[in-house]
Structure formats: C-alpha cells, structure tokens
Design a protein that fits this description.
single chain; alpha/beta; Rossmann fold; GMP Synthetase, Chain A, domain 3; five-stranded parallel sheet; globular; 2-methylpropanoate--CoA ligase CCL4-like; ligase; ATP-binding; propionate-CoA ligase activity; AMP-bd_C_sf
C-alpha cells in the first residue's frame, strides 16, 4: 500500500465555510435567522454572505488581513462569521464589555484593516481610534445601522454619524455580487479567527484558530450535545465570546434557526422560547441563575436544552434550572480551544439517582469530546498524571484538533502554553475522579470568571496600584450568586495619610479605569497582607477569607 498517497481528491482543506453552502442547498426555504420582525431563509443568508464578501473584497481586504466587528447578536454579526473568511480574511469579534483603552490596544495589536460597528457602539470605537498614534493608519469603518438601536434616544442617529464610515452594512450587501467565488483556504491550517482573551490590556493575548480547528469543534459540539437537524437555537451566548463557542458555523451545519437578540433579558427569553419553539441555547451559569430568578420562570411547555460552561455551576442552580423544564449539559472549554472540548456526558444509570445527586454529578466538567485526542491532570512538580481519586490536584492539559495555533505576536507565550510532549496547558487546576470524569477545583494565574468572562486579577491590581493612597493590593474571586464570581480587592494603605479612602471611593476610582465587569465589587482594607517568607502575598489565604464572606451583595455594579 506504499503507493497509495494523499491526492487533491481526498486532501482538500477542511473549512466550516462550506456549511452554509450546504444549508442553502438542503434547507434553502427554511428559516435561518429571526431577529425582531426580520426573517431570512438559508438561501437568503447564503446569498447575503456572498454579496457581503464581494463588497469586503472591493475594499482591498485580502487573505490574512484582520477584519474586526463590534456588535451584539444580530443578523450582521452572524453573517460576518461566514462573509469575512469567504475573502480569506481573519475574523476578530470584539467584546462589547471592554473599555475604549483596551479596544484601542487590541485593534492596534491585531492591525485590523476594517471594522464593522453596530450603531450602539459607535462612540466606543470613535474614542478607541482617537487613542491611535498620529502616524498609525486607522482601519476603515462600516456602520451596522439597526432600527432597534435607533429606538434608543441616547444613541446617535445614522444621519449624524454616517460621514465617519466608508459604507453601511446593508448597502454593502445590496451592491455585492451574489455569484462571488469565495476564497478557499490554501491549507486547513490557515487562520480563520482571532479572539482576545478577556481583560487583556498591556499584554494582549490574541488566540488564533485555523479552519481545521473550527470545522472539527463545531461538528464535535453538535454531536456531543445531540443537536438534530433544523433545531431552533436562541442566541443568549454572545457571539463575540469565543465566536459563540463555534455555534454560528454549527447551526448552519444542521440547517437550524438562529433566533437573535441584542441583549439578555429573562422575560424576553421565556417569551421567545415559547413563541419560536426554541430547542437549544448556551450560556454561562450566570444565565441559568438569571432565568431561574426571573418572575416569568413558569415551567416550560416542552424541554429546552442548555449547554453551560465558563465557570463551575453550583449544583443548586442546576437543580433549579432543570425544575423549570430545561435539560442542562455542562461543558468546559476556553478561548484557546474554540469551544467545548470536555463535556459531562450523561450516563443513563444516573437517572435513577436523587435529583440533588444528579446535580452534583452534572456540576463536574466531564470527559474529553471525540475530536479531542486526550485530556489529563498533571502534577505540577512531576508532570505525571495525578491519582484518579477526586482529591489529587494538578493542572488540566489537553491535546486535540481545536487547540489554538498559538498567540499572535507572542512566541514566548505560545511556547509556554505548548509542551514539547504535545500538551496544551490550560492554566486551570482540577482533579480526576475514579470514573475518569474531570472536575475543576481552582484556577491558576488567579483568573476570575465573572458572568462567563475571564478577567485577570493582575490587571485589576495594576489599576489599584495607580491610586496614590494604595500601598499593596491583591485581587481574588469572591462567590457571587448572580455573576458566579466577582473581584474582591484586599488593600493596605500607605502610612501617614491625612484621610483614608472608603470602599466606595476605591470602587469609583476603578470604574474610571477598567471595564465595568473588572471593577472590584468588594474592597477590604488590611493593616498587613499575609506573605510568604520571601515576601510574596499569600493569595490562597485571601481567597479563603473572600469565600468566608459569602456571596457578594447585589447592590453594586
């Protein structure tokens, strides 16, 4: 068999772009997108993406260029997941919750050539671009006008701001060529998306994924979650968050219906579930908590599947969510994995267990998915697998098709995350249970997960240290019933102050320098920080103290 080798017929580069072409062929007359009063079919969405890609190409956007978009879950945001890579460009979705300084840094770091801007985010982008050095060329801007945004009197009208843009989204769609021949990747390893990890400012971590990785993780997620053809998917998960865990491509693969909403509203969610017979939705545990606490949380007429990830969900929240008729699947992934790579695959015999025990089992992250070659928990000292006893702690490592190509312009960071023996080190700490199911116990690098968004405590500490009254600062996670976790700041003040700041003053100080979700919700003043013999602050002591405070109050932020 030595004469049998790969040929062009069997080694064509894998890419998720073809999913929409297939959807248009099979499900052409079926509904693809629902957004307020707007509805498209799959044949219309396919045509719109081709026309948009044609117009993007007319601006000189070429293979390898970065195209950014800052928008909520609207049809435009969905279509750009196909139209941008159709011209060989790399899609960069920007987190709406970031501040102008951070966005400016990310745009400069990515060298974005073109930005699609939702009408509600215009001021944010204008301010971010104003921070560019005078000698640096600014990216072109395209306005995504939206009737829903126009209804907000606090936002600028299309007429008042259109001179800042080279074009409008719908005009680009209208004049584009529906026969546009989209540009296929030269290799399935070609980049398709660039995502920045949350909270990156001074040192951006731009995660790059290839066509092959997105192709496999999208199909793997559908298979593991059991998403059938023509499901109805409600976009409660932001598409800017890791490309919506790769479900924009996945829903096209099954010819499903995308129900889009601009922002999360529990009352609207329950209304849309009933009106459109929603079958699936995703979200961090904070979404589950919001749904269960809504006054409109009447039991569902039919089961709705929820995939939750982003933070370990408390068993009590899982129990309350399923009591309403939701069927919860718990998964694990990170920006560097392009979606869910570990899932708490359910065993039929567990159905016989009491509900609280089922919730406890479901709170575990689970086992590797099919396109993931291996998952393990390694002892940080020996780099050997820890005992499968549910108690021995180590770092979670993975290897699989959807692991990132690496970090943009950061060879040292890439090398640090990728071991020579083929592991990607996630930075998360966990245990392996006797049955082979993994469970996260803590997070290395002091990452805090608030509302499904990762934020670095170091970033918050750097701002606190800018305050002239602060001597030392350390930030850890405090449990929060609403957000899962929120930043808790421990501060020691400088000696000789004529007046000591209040907790509220420290919080207000941070609000002016950080994205809202990164602002500490709790500030505790310390006379002396707990330290090691070498002078390092003992964060594990502070984490225990923050945990002992109980869940943070809901009054702030």
């Amino acid at each position: 068999m030595e004469d049998l080798k790969p040929t062009p017929a069997n080694s064509f580069p894998l890419t998720p772009i073809g999913f929409i072409q297939r959807a248009a062929t099979i499900y052409g007359d079926s509904t693809s997108i629902i957004y307020n009063s707007t509805t498209y079919t799959w044949s219309e969405t396919h045509r719109r993406c081709l026309q948009l890609a044609s117009s993007i190409s007319s601006f000189g956007i070429q293979r390898g260029h970065v195209v950014s978009v800052i928008a909520p879950n609207t049809p435009a945001m969905y279509e750009l997941h196909f139209a941008v890579p159709m011209v060989g460009a790399i899609l960069n979705t920007i987190n709406l919750r970031l501040d102008t300084r951070t966005i400016s840094i990310l745009l400069r770091h990515s060298e974005s050539k073109l930005i699609f801007v939702d009408q509600a985010s215009c001021a944010l982008i204008f301010e971010a671009l104003a921070l560019f050095p005078p000698e640096m060329k600014r990216p072109l801007l395209v306005l995504i006008a939206d009737d829903a945004a126009e209804q907000d009197s606090s936002l600028p009208s299309f007429v008042s701001i259109r001179d800042n843009f080279v074009d409008s989204y719908e005009d680009m769609v209208k004049r584009g060529d529906s026969k546009f021949q989209w540009i296929r990747p030269l290799s399935e390893w070609d980049p398709i998306v660039l995502n920045y990890t949350s909270g990156t400012t001074s040192s951006p971590k731009g995660v790059v994924h290839c066509h092959r990785g997105i192709f496999t993780v999208a199909l793997d997620s559908l298979l593991e979650w059991g998403v059938p053809k023509q499901s109805v998917y409600l976009w409660t998960l932001p598409m800017f968050h890791g490309n919506g865990w790769s479900f924009p491509w996945g829903i096209a693969a099954v010819g499903g219906t995308n129900v889009c909403i601009r922002k999360f509203d529990a009352r609207l969610i329950f209304s849309l579930i009933r009106r459109h017979h929603v079958t699936h939705l995703c979200g961090a545990p904070v979404v589950l908590n919001m749904l269960t606490n809504s006054p409109d949380n009447l039991p569902l007429d039919r089961p709705v599947k929820i995939l939750t990830a982003g933070a370990p969900p408390p068993a009590s929240i899982l129990l309350r969510t399923e009591s309403l008729g939701f069927v919860v699947t718990h998964g694990y992934g990170l920006t560097e994995s392009a979606g869910t790579i570990i899932c708490c695959s359910w065993k039929s015999e567990w159905n016989q267990l009491p509900a609280i025990e089922q919730a406890r089992l479901k709170a575990r992250q689970g086992v590797r998915m099919l396109a993931v070659e291996a998952v393990d928990v390694l002892d940080p000292e020996t780099r050997k697998s820890v005992k499968r006893d549910g108690a021995s702690i180590g770092e979670i490592v993975v290897r699989g098709t959807s692991v990132t190509l690496g970090y943009l312009k950061d060879p040292e960071g890439t090398a640090k995350a990728m071991s020579e023996d083929g592991w990607f080190f996630t930075g998360d700490v966990g245990v392996m249970h006797p049955d082979g199911y993994l469970e996260i116990k803590d997070r290395s690098k002091d990452v805090i997960i608030s509302g499904g968004e990762n934020l670095s405590s170091v970033e918050v500490e750097s701002v606190l240290y800018m305050n002239p009254m602060v001597n030392e600062a350390a930030v850890v996670a405090r449990p929060d019933e609403f957000w899962g976790e929120t930043p808790c700041a421990f501060i020691s003040l400088k000696e000789g102050l004529s007046r000591k700041p209040t907790e509220e003053e420290i919080i207000e100080y941070c609000k002016g320098k950080l994205p809202r979700f990164m602002v500490p919700k709790t500030v505790i003043f310390m006379t002396e920080m707990p330290k090691t013999a070498t002078g390092k602050i003992q964060k594990f002591v502070l984490r225990q103290k923050a945990k002992s405070l109980g869940p943070a109050p809901k009054s702030r932020l």
